[in-house]
Specification:
- This protein is an alpha/beta fold.
- Among the domains are: about 130 residues, Leucine-rich repeat, LRR (right-handed beta-alpha superhelix); about 300 residues, Leucine-rich repeat, LRR (right-handed beta-alpha superhelix), CATH 3.80.10.
- Helix content is about 10%, strand content about 20%.
- It contains 13 helices and 61 strands.
- Strand 34, helix 8 and strand 35 form a beta-alpha-beta unit.
């Protein structure tokens, strides 16, 4: 909750220093009757010529004759010299409303170069170029030659490289801010910090996000600054705090060492800084105990030690900081302070901000907490707090922010909370959040007091809320952010939504809302982000719905049955960055209104009934697209080469595209062109530009008309994790260069005409999870390296090839193997007895390390839960495809081979150890002996086939075996249910006899049959459905097949 802590304390100190000490700032100068000097005017114009000014911010420079009237220029009233240049970006990155419009903020940034003509401004004492974008150029070393400079701010201005030591020549400097960017290529570093030694008057030093790893003596260098008041060294890659014998910067008021990697104790000298008012040690990997004893922090008002690995109870010294205003103790790490909220915190009566999230507190909220009258921010999220929220919460009348998310609280929000007239942010999200009986209208009724006017942010994501949205929604006239997603809210959206005129962000996704979209939605002129995906909306959406949505940048309404009816010449009033309309009906023509959208980065129009071709203008305007999904339509035509633009993910599968494969930009990371009619060979696609490495991680070209050989030039595709080329007409051998793909996890080459042996180089692909080479003409034996090198393998499919030889015992090293299909080959020998070691078929596993998992799903896309792994299993003569249910499937198919051994119990007697097996096929081999009795322990087995072998003896008794079809045991010398052959009479039908004795026997047989029928009927039909996973799977398989066809149309899983 770092965003919840104000930055007001450091900024107040900074403003005080600048105004009181320097007496600078544009507010102090009105430039009345001031005319700038001609030499300085020329210097400014030369400086402007080197700048890039896309928004024409400096348009006044040169138009006005007096440069003291130019934007950002401040002159001295008495000398006419230029004293200050305020050229920072006008946008504040902390401003939520403005920075949600990221594209706009980028356009106003200055760039280019910093011209040395600034050296002619001899009296320049203030230079601010912060929040611009100078494109990674170095900080000009000549800035160290500005003799009068006292204030230099280059924070987040896009400078990169090593900070020039010449800045140390600015002996009069009082404020230096070189804060770097948090991400990107424009990163700053230092060789050392020795150049700081000349800053005897420096009061403010900000090196946040500047890499100081090469400056191990950083503390000694800073300790030489006797006037230092503020020190910001957060996220500087610091890994140690050197010992400090004597503290020289005793005037320090603000100290920020957050975001580093110290892995050490908190040094005690910090607690001797009596002037310290703000201390931030958060997220710095501090360990051990928080030092107790005498703390001389009598002036401390802000303390942040959140997100560290501190492992003790809170020290008593903390509870004596009576001047403390802001306290952040959020844990959010594995080590937690379990138990009740420490009662010593009630001594901190001046607290205005308190964050205790992630502690693991497992008590109720103590009553004394409601007596901290000054609290403005209270964060108790991500704990295990239980009980009810007291009505005393109404005493916290100063509250502005309240976060109770992810707890086990019951009873709902008391009605007294409705009188928290200053509350602006209320966060109740989480599966274990507020359980108020579930009705959204009850909650809105609670919030109908004065809080309905003050509330600006309301988050109720995953809060187990149901009921209908009513006109109560319209009471929140100042609400800016509303999250109601991932609940069970039903009914239509009320017309009163249009009264929420301040809304910037609205998320109603993944509920059960129905009906049509209200036209009042179009009244939300300030709305920027709208998520309504995966609901039950239906009906027509027209231009009226979007009439005033001029600020909209993100629109995700996927997974609804809506129809867009607009005129062919419609020009939307918005410019969207993300457009997601999956499963709407937009067709049959390609939507022409997209022509007006110039800067979108995400476009998902999958399953939208488009049967047109893609117009040429689309490829010309789509350079900014990063995620393109037009799959599951009937789009025709050819795809041009995709060599330019910012494409990252391209999903065009399940259409009617024809022609050769397009050449690909090296920037693309995911490509799905499957289930189309692309033809020709793939050599040009794989080998053109083979000297250029690319970033592709997913390649899906399956189910096309591709032919020819798979080329042997995969060396530069080293980022690939998924290759799917199945169901084509490819021939030749599997290329050995696939062995260069060390990150490969999924390889699907099934149903082609590949020949030859599996290349030995595949043993280098140690991350492989899935290999499917079925339905080809491959030959050879299974190499022993397969089991030794590919220990992560879960799915191995070699069905319908020409493999031969014995099944190697090395396959038993596949501890994660859950599907093994070796059917329809020419394997011989015995079934390895060590198959009992295939623990994924015997022991239920949970978390996995390979692929990206959610509930053990295997998915590979950077879009969470997208591009699921799939596998095929043949059962009962049908080939079924699994993806969403794949983690639940275990299957072994060795049918139609030449497996034989002369001894009995050819089937290993330990087969019963594989308790999670659901499908087992040993049919059409030469197995002999008996079915092992341990097979009756396979309680999850839903399909078994041992037909057409040489097995003999009695079929073991179990619900799973007796419930199989009799055809699963035919072609052997077996007896017992479900076969009609009775083992006690050698297969003959018993003689019932005649007369009284026979009559008694017949009556007994009737009752025995009835009793047997009842038992079998109950346990075979009712009990397994209720309690046995395998029987439920038969039903779920049907659902899985249906889901596979419609999941992309009605929301990804």
């Amino acid at each position: 909750m770092m965003d919840a802590f104000p930055k007001s304390v450091p900024m107040l100190f900074l403003q005080f220093l600048i105004i009181a000490t320097l007496n600078l700032g544009s507010s102090c100068y009105a430039n009345i009757d001031v005319a700038c000097l001609e030499s300085e005017k020329r210097a400014l114009l030369s400086f402007k010529q080197g700048l890039e000014d896309p928004s024409n911010r400096l348009s006044s420079w040169g138009v006005e004759d007096d440069c003291c009237e130019w934007a950002g220029v401040v002159c001295d009233n008495s000398t006419d010299h230029v004293r200050e240049l305020h050229l920072q970006s006008p946008y504040d990155e902390e401003d939520y409303e403005i920075w949600s419009q990221y594209a706009t903020s980028e356009k106003v940034k200055l760039g280019g170069e910093v011209n040395p003509s600034l050296l002619n401004l001899k009296h320049l004492s203030y230079l601010d170029l912060s929040q611009n974008d100078f494109g990674g150029i170095p900080i000009p070393s000549f800035l160290g030659s500005l003799p009068s400079l006292q204030y230099l701010n280059l924070s987040e201005a896009g400078f990169a490289g090593t900070v020039p030591h010449q800045l140390g020549n600015l002996s009069g400097l009082r404020s230096l801010n070189l804060k770097g960017l948090p991400y990107g290529d424009a990163q700053l570093d230092v060789e050392n910090l020795d150049w700081l030694s000349g800053f005897l008057t420096l009061e403010h030093l900000d090196l946040r996000q500047v890499n100081l790893a090469k400056a191990p003596n950083w503390l000694q260098a800073v300790n030489k600054l006797p006037s230092l008041v503020e020190l910001h060294l957060s996220y500087c890659e610091l890994d140690r705090i050197p010992p400090l014998k004597h503290v020289n910067f005793k005037s320090l008021v603000v100290l920020d060492l957050s975001g580093n990697r110290f892995f050490s104790l908190i040094p005690r000298w910090i607690f001797s800084l009596s002037s310290l008012a703000s201390l931030n040690l958060g997220s710095s990997n501090f360990e051990g105990q928080i030092p107790d004893g005498f703390w001389n922090l009598t002036s401390l008002k802000v303390l942040d030690v959140s997100s560290n690995d501190l492992n003790s109870l809170l020290p008593n010294s903390l509870f004596g900081l009576h001047s403390l205003v802001s306290l952040n103790l959020s844990a959010m790490n594995d080590i937690r302070f379990e138990g009740p909220i420490p009662s010593g915190l009630q001594n901190l009566t001046s607290l205005e901000e308190l964050s205790l999230s992630g502690f693991g507190f497992n008590s109720s909220i103590p009553e004394w907490l409601y007596s901290l009258w000054h609290l403005e921010m209270l964060d108790l999220g991500y704990n295990q707090l239980n009980g009810v929220i007291s009505s005393s919460i109404g005493n916290l009348t100063s509250l502005v922010i309240l976060d109770l998310s992810r707890n086990d609280l019951e009873g709902g929000i008391p009605r007294e909370a409705g009188n928290l007239c200053k509350l602006r942010r209320l966060i109740l999200s989480g599966y274990s959040g507020i359980r108020s009986g579930g009705d959204i209208s009850d909650l809105f009724r609670t919030l109908s007091g004065c809080i309905s006017y003050s509330l600006e942010i309301l988050k109720l994501t995953k809060s187990r809320i149901s009921g209908h949205l009513t006109d109560q929604l319209g009471q929140f006239i100042n609400l800016k952010v509303l999250f109601l997603d991932l609940n069970s809210i039903s009914g239509p959206i009320p017309l009163s939504l249009g009264r929420c005129s301040s809304l910037l962000t609205l998320s109603l996704a993944r509920n059960q809302l129905n009906g049509t979209l209200p036209e009042s939605l179009g009244c939300l002129s300030k709305l920027k982000h709208l998520w309504i995906s995966r609901n039950l909306f239906e009906g027509v959406v027209s231009e009226v719905h979007f009439a005033n949505l001029t600020s909209l940048t993100i629109f995700d309404a996927s997974g609804n049955q809506l129809i867009l009816e607009v005129s062919p010449n419609w020009i939307p009033p918005f410019q969207l960055a993300e457009i997601e309309l999956r499963s709407w009906y937009l067709g049959p023509q390609f939507p022409m209104w997209l022509h007006s959208q110039k800067g979108f980065s995400v476009l998902d129009l999958s399953c939208t009934g488009i049967s047109d071709s893609i117009p040429s203008w689309f490829w010309n305007l789509s350079f900014s697209i990063q995620n393109l999904n037009l799959s599951h339509n009937q789009i025709k035509g050819k795809i041009p080469d995709i060599l330019d633009g910012d494409y990252s993910m391209i999903y065009l599968g399940s259409n009617q595209f024809t022609g050769p494969l397009p050449r690909l930009s090296s920037n693309v990371t995911e490509l799905d062109l499957s289930n189309n009619a692309f033809s020709g060979d793939i050599r040009h696609f794989i080998c053109d530009g083979k000297d250029e490495s690319n970033r592709l991680t997913i390649l899906h070209l399956g189910e096309n008309l591709l032919s020819g050989e798979i080329p042997d030039c995969w060396m530069n595709w080293t980022a690939l994790r998924v290759i799917k080329l199945g169901n084509n007409h490819l021939s030749g051998t599997i290329p050995s260069s696939l062995g260069n793909l060390l990150q490969l996890q999924s390889l699907h080459l099934r149903n082609n005409s590949l020949s030859g042996e599996v290349p030995l180089s595949l043993q280098n692909c140690t991350e492989l999870v899935t290999i499917d080479l079925g339905w080809n003409q491959l030959v050879g034996s299974i190499h022993t390296w397969l089991g030794r090198s590919l220990s992560n393998l879960k799915i191995l499919g070699l069905r319908s090839n020409n493999f031969y030889g014995e099944i190697p015992s090395e396959l038993c090293h596949f501890a994660s193997l859950q599907i093994l299909d070796l059917a329809s080959n020419s394997f011989s020998g015995s079934i390895p007895r060590c198959f009992k070691n295939l623990t994924a078929m015997a022991i239920k596993s949970h978390s996995q390390d390979h692929g990206r998992y959610s509930n053990d799903w295997i998915f590979y896309s950077s879009n969470w839960r997208s591009f699921l792994e799939n596998a095929f299993v043949v059962t009962k003569g049908r080939e079924l495809q699994y993806n969403t249910l794949l983690p639940l499937v275990t299957s072994m198919d060795l049918s139609d081979n030449d497996i034989v051994v002369p001894k009995t119990r050819m089937i290993p007697k330990e087969i019963g150890n594989m308790e999670l097996l659901e499908s087992l096929d040993f049919s059409r081999n030469q197995l002999s002996g008996e079915i092992p009795p341990s097979m009756s322990a396979l309680t999850f087995l839903s399909f078994l086939n041992v037909s057409n072998n040489n097995l003999s003896g009695q079929i073991p008794s179990s619900t799973q075996l007796q419930s199989q079809n009799a055809s699963s045991f035919t072609g052997n010398s077996l007896c017992g249910p479900p076969l009609v052959e009775n083992c006690s009479t050698g297969g003959a039908t018993p003689d019932i006899g005649e007369g009284d004795e026979g009559g008694d026997s017949e009556v007994n047989w009737f009752f025995l049959t009835a009793a047997y029928g009842f038992v079998v009927g109950f346990w075979v039909i009712v009990s397994p459905i209720l309690f046995k996973r395998s029987w439920r799977f038969a039903y779920f398989r049907f659902l899985d097949e249906m889901w596979h066809r419609i999941c992309t149309c009605f929301g990804k899983p």
